[in-house]
Amino acid sequence: PRRKKKKAKDKAQILEQIVSSKKQEEEKKRGLDKRTPAQVAYEKMQEKRQMERILKKASKTHKQRVEDFNRHLDTLTEHYDIPKVSWTK
């Protein structure tokens, strides 16, 4: 037997169901939530900061990071260089 092709309407309905089910889950969580408003705010800020950190890290390519790091190393004094050690002398 052949399967029916899903139409755009079906996809839209499925998306709506997913969104509405997520909203219902959130409402249930709020009812069962034993956290204080301060704890909720704290977790929201933590999540926001984490997203900012991820976006900041994702903004540069590896090549750009390496170039920046090399520039930083060039600015350092050579006091921190590892001295050459020769066992023959």
From TrEMBL:
Q: Which domain of life is it from?
A: Eukaryota
- Regions of biased composition (Basic and acidic residues) lie at 22-35
**PANTHER family given for it?**
PROTEIN FAM32A
- Which family does the similarity line name? Belongs to the FAM32 family.
Protein's recorded name: Family with sequence similarity 32 member A
Region listing for Disordered, in residue ranges: 1-35
An example of a Gene Ontology cellular component annotation for this protein is: nucleolus
InterPro entries recorded: FAM32A
